[in-house]
Every structure is written in structure tokens, then in C-alpha cells.
Design brief:
alpha/beta; Aspartate Aminotransferase, domain 1; 2 domains; four-stranded mixed sheet; 17 helices; 42% helix; binds pyridoxal-5'-phosphate
Length: 463
């Protein structure tokens, strides 16, 4: 019998629009099954209402680096609750713990004289970066620089600007987004999918850079404020741009006086095997936004790190205007800050970047044999994030017909095997907690392999 879902519409939209982007089959399947109700978590596992354990292969929404039961984070929240459960960061005030967190973050950021702005979500952080970029250009007498360049398939959040920046049609269709004349979407730097026949990866990169410059010139650099990108594009399907791509982008942006904004909401704080994804991918942004791993997802907190020279220009303008008119009631919430500070302490104790780099090698090594699986066309990712692309034909790279929802089939089959993964269309994403062990990685890959086998057989393929 069909079970009625009790999930509110907003939750369905969030689940399905963001992570099952190309298939209505997913929405119907979820409605039929009802939501997966999670009761508790322990280590890398979560347990549902029926007592079934799952390896959380996605750290929730790419968040819970320290797993689901870290007692030190619980204690940090309890302690802060007792000392100062709320204060704000307006009118030149700041909770002590927030100042400490800002100092700690600044010590990790490879910017000169960084300044840190706090918010509660990734979307708010990205919106804030855009406003800061606008303020920066206006302060320098370049108020016409307004538009933002972003990637097709990029994901930057669900607020009006976050969704506008995102290059995912399902984020736009229902809402009449992107905001008019605000965002220029450029080609997704995914060689496997968008390289043309006979083109090498280097030629692909050169073509994209030529196209980017032509677009900047056609629009007029004096109308463009910023370029935003995730170092590794998460919700678009775990896409790692070719080496040299970002360095080329950086040179073009410098030439045209356009700010480089890194959306490090997934990559920031260790996911790619360095503290920040831009270090792994080889570029130097003017600002970056982080969230998720900042508190291991235990508290809603995000931040924007701003390079000193950008901050300076904005500060001078703020003096003239009598203040900087931006911020949120819960910006720099002390309980969230206390949890984030403890999270960063634990990351430093576990030598996080090296740790995720080593475990990432192991994860990718274990996944590599899946390239021989009849369903798998490409394995991608770096550090503790991986994407597997499901294809109908490995030679032509042809996708399965959308209506069979092959990605959703694998996601469901994995769940049957006790593993939570995410399907974005026909890409399967993995971003396990940083605390995963070598044995647990082996178990995760074993469960995924069984799920792929089940789906291959169900679709008439032989193993
Ligand atoms: C790269 C990226 N940017 C922005 C966001 C939006 O973050 P939030 O959902 O906290 O607003 C996300 C969320 O998944 C993300 O992955």
C-alpha cells in the first residue's frame, strides 16, 4: 500500500530539487516510500526509526566531519549555553567566544590580514560575499560593476541570490530566477561531459578560458563585479575542474578587475585534503565562504573570509556612510561559535588536512576498481569527496534515459545495503565523515558495489 508522506512540501523540495536534480522519478519514489526517519547517530553511522543502521556516506549534507556523536562538541555547546547563550555582533559588540573563533579562523586562512564575517548558513554567506563585492567596487568609484559570473551546474544556495548564482535549472524554473541581469552563467568545467570529440583536456581548458574572456568583453568588464566558484562543484555532481583552469580564470579576473569569490561551503575545512579547496585546486580568491565542516554541522554557522585589501576599501566607505548596513541577528551566535571553535581544535589535533588527504587517497584507491563496473563511466573527486557517473554506454558516454532514474535506483539500492549516498541526476556522491577508518572505507565501498550490482542486474546488464 502506498504510504503517505508526512514530509512538508518545503522539505520535499529541499531534498528533491537539490539532490535529485534531473528526475521526477525521485520525487514520486520518495512520496511512495515516505521519508527516512533518522533517530540517532553514532560515529559514521545513523540509525532509522526501525533500528536500521546506515553508513552516512555523505556526512549528512557534506557536514558532519566528526561523525554523529562527538561528546566534545556536545560539551562545548552545553558550556556555552550556561555562560552566554546569546549575544550579537552589532554596534561594535561581540561575544568573547566569537572573537576567539574569528582569531582561530584567521590563523588558518591564507589571506593577508583576513577579516571574518559570520552568518548562519551557506546561502547567507554567499549572499554576503556578493554584497561585499558590490560594496568594494562602489567604494572604489566603480558602482557599475554589478554582475556575477558563475558556472552552469554550480550550486550556491537557496536564497534569492544563492539560487540565482546556482547554475541548476531546477533552482530557477519555479521562481522566475535568476534575478534579471544579475548572473552570467558560463560553461561547467567538466571535461568528461563537455569536452568535444578529439579535444584534449588542455584544449578544453583553453577553450573555456577563451569563452570566458569573450563573455567578459561582450558584457563589458565595467559591468562585472565578481566570479564565484566552488573549488570542487558538489551538488552539480562532484566535478573537479581540470588542472590549470582556475589559474587561467584567476589571470583573466585580475586583468579585468573582477573579484574571485570561492564558495568553500563544501570544500572548506579539510574536505579536499587541504584546509581550503582553493589551495588544492591552485588559486587565490579575494573572499571565501565556509559553513558545514566549520561546526561539523552540529550548529548552524557560516562565515565569509575577506582579504585585507578588500576589507580596507569597504571600511573606508563605511566610515563615510556611517556604518556597514549588513548583518543578521544570529551572526556570530555564541553557542554555534563555541561548537565551531571546539571543532577546529579537534581538526587541528587530528592534523586534519593530512588526515583527509591520506584517507582520500585510500577512498579513491578503493573506488577505482568500480571503473570496470558496467554502470560506471567516470570516477572523480579529491580528498574525502568522490563522484561516480552512471552511464549507459561507457564508450560514447551516453546517459541512461532520464525517466528510468538510474541514479535514484542506485541511491535506493545503497540504502537497502545500509549505505546513504546522494544521487544528483546520474552522479553518485560520497563525502564520508573525516573520522571514517580504513576498515569502514572498505565496508562503505563493499556496500556501494553490492548496490551497483543489484541495479545493473535489474536493468538487464551482466556483471
Ligand atoms: C557549495 C554550496 N554552496 C552553498 C550552499 C548553501 O548552503 P545552505 O544550505 O547552508 O544555505 C551549499 C549547500 O549544500 C553548497 O553545497
Amino acid at each position: 500500500m502506498m504510504q503517505e508522506t508526512t514530509l512538508p512540501l518545503t522539505e520535499l523540495a529541499r531534498t528533491d530539487v537539490r539532490f535529485h536534480l534531473h528526475s521526477q522519478t525521485n520525487l514520486r519514489a520518495h512520496q511512495q516510500q515516505g521519508p527516512l526517519v533518522i533517530e540517532h547517530g553514532s560515529g559514521i553511522y545513523v540509525t532509522d526509526e526501525h533500528g536500521r543502521d546506515y553508513i552516512e556516506g555523505m556526512s549528512g549534507l557534506w557536514c558532519a566531519g566528526l561523525g554523529f556523536s562527538n561528546p566534545r562538541l556536545v560539551e562545548a555547546a552545553q558550556r556555552q549555553m550556561a555562560v552566554l547563550p546569546y549575544y550579537h555582533t552589532f554596534n561594535h559588540r561581540v561575544p568573547n567566544v566569537v572573537a576567539q573563533l574569528a582569531e582561530r579562523i584567521a590563523s588558518l586562512v591564507p589571506f593577508e590580514q583576513p577579516k571574518i564575517f559570520f552568518a548562519c548558513s551557506g546561502s547567507e554567506a554567499n549572499d554576503s560575499m556578493i554584497k561585499l563585492a558590490w560594496a568594494y567596487h562602489r567604494a572604489r568609484g566603480k558602482g557599475s560593476k554589478r554582475k556575477v559570473i558563475a558556472h552552469q551546474k554550480g550550486f550556491h544556495g537557496s536564497t534569492v541570490m544563492g539560487a540565482s548564482l546556482s547554475g541548476l535549472p531546477n533552482m530557477h524554473a519555479a521562481f522566475g530566477l535568476p534575478l534579471e541581469n544579475s548572473v552570467l552563467h558560463v560553461q561547467c568545467p567538466h571535461f568528461y561531459r563537455y569536452g568535444i570529440e578529439g579535444e584534449s583536456e588542455t584544449q578544453f581548458t583553453e577553450r573555456l578560458l577563451r569563452e570566458l574572456e569573450a563573455r567578459i568583453e561582450a558584457e563589458g568588464a565595467d559591468t562585472i563585479a565578481a566570479f564565484i566558484s566552488e573549488p570542487v562543484m558538489g551538488a552539480g555532481g562532484v566535478i573537479v575542474p581540470p588542472s590549470g583552469y582556475f589559474a587561467g580564470v584567476q589571470a583573466l579576473l585580475k586583468k579585468h578587475d573582477i573579484l574571485f569569490l570561492a564558495d568553500e561551503i563544501i570544500c572548506g575545512f579539510g574536505r579536499t585534503g587541504r584546509w581550503f579547496g582553493h589551495q588544492t585546486l591552485g588559486f587565490a580568491p579575494d573572499m571565501m565562504a565556509c559553513a558545514k565542516s566549520l561546526s561539523s554541522g552540529y550548529q548552524p554557522i557560516s562565515c565569509v573570509m575577506v582579504a585585507g585589501n578588500v576589507y580596507q576599501a569597504i571600511e573606508e566607505q563605511s566610515q563615510q556612510l556611517g556604518g556597514f548596513g549588513h548583518g543578521f541577528t544570529y551572526s556570530g551566535h555564541p553557542v554555534a561559535a563555541a561548537v565551531a571553535l571546539e571543532t577546529l581544535t579537534i581538526y587541528q589535533e587530528m592534523h586534519l588536512p593530512q588526515h583527509t588527504e591520506e584517507l582520500g587517497h585510500l577512498l579513491h584507491q578503493r573506488l577505482e576498481p568500480l571503473l570496470a563496473h558496467p554502470l560506471i563511466g567516470e570516477l572523480r573527486g579529491i580528498g574525502l569527496v568522490a563522484g561516480l557517473e552512471l552511464v549507459a554506454d561507457k564508450t560514447t558516454r551516453a546517459s541512461f534515459p532520464a525517466h528510468i532514474g538510474i541514479g535514484a535506483q542506485v541511491e535506493r539500492a545503497a540504502r537497502e545495503q545500509g549505505l546513504i549516498v546522494r544521487n544528483m541526476g546520474d552522479s553518485i556522491a560520497l563525502a564520508p565523515p573525516f573520522i571514517i577508518t580504513a576498515d569502514e572505507i572498505a565496508e562503505l565501498v563493499a556496500r556501494l558495489t553490492r548496490a551497483l550490482d543489484v541495479v545493473a542486474l535489474a536493468n538487464g546488464l551482466s556483471l
